[in-house]
Input
Amino acid sequence: MKVIPVALSLLLLASEVCAQGVYVCTQSNGVREYRNTGDVRGCRKLDTESLSSIPAPSSVIQAKADPSFPRVDSQTQKRRDLDRMQILTDEIRTEENKLAELKKEYQNGEPERLGSERNYAKYQERVATMKDDIARTEKNIEALKREIGQLK
Output
């Protein structure tokens, strides 16, 4: 239910910005930029008077509180949770295998140089990419473990 206050505050903020004015500024390279001030050369004020907002129907907002909202029986939910657990476990296993291969190739920051890497900068770039891949894979594993922890 925290979504509704956040959405309302964003709508109020947007209406306040529109009341002040929205400017489109075209830079010398042709890139357009939208701002709330027209203090830069090449800016023109947009007509925001014709914009209107339509609130969401109350039935959409109250759907979660409605007892007639579709529910899933506990057996079906348990089956879905088990399927999800299996998928996450398989993903962790895949990521762990990938991590082992990356670390094996990385060799503690000193992988073998390739014949195409006569330039040392290319070698360093590959090593940095490998290090980033290892860090990303470790983060993926952590995220998957957190998600499994939330299922239990």
Summary: The radius of gyration is 27 Å. The chain has a mean pLDDT of 80. The first helix runs from residue 3 to 20.
